[in-house]
Write a structure and sequence with these properties.
The radius of gyration is 14 Å and the shape is globular. It has one domain. It is mostly beta strands.
Length: 97
């Protein structure tokens, strides 16, 4: 069910956080094939099972808060150079006994 929006991470980075002249091609080059990437009114919206955000897309003062841009799913990994967001899999886990 890759087209199921509930099984996707969604990240929305406000235009104020983004560095000027960010190329949508550069963003898409880092993503999996099933990830959608759009620049809407200057805001960057990414949705997919796994979404990558590179530090060199974001202004330095906003990088410490980049996990706040995750709208759906969770920030699975954050390093000095990137953040990886994953879809929320809790709905598909087996119930505890």
């Amino acid at each position: 069910m890759p087209d199921d929006p509930r099984g996707q991470a969604e990240v929305l980075i406000p235009s104020a956080w983004l560095l000027p002249n960010l190329s949508l091609d550069a963003v898409r080059a880092l993503q999996r094939g099933d990830t959608s990437s759009d620049l809407e009114k200057g805001d960057l919206r990414l949705a997919g099972v796994e979404v990558l955000i590179a530090r060199n897309w974001v202004k330095e003062e906003f990088w410490p808060r980049i996990q706040d841009a995750v709208q759906k799913g969770y920030a699975a990994e954050k390093t000095y150079t990137f953040m990886r967001a994953h879809a929320d899999r809790r709905g598909s886990r087996r119930p505890k006994k």
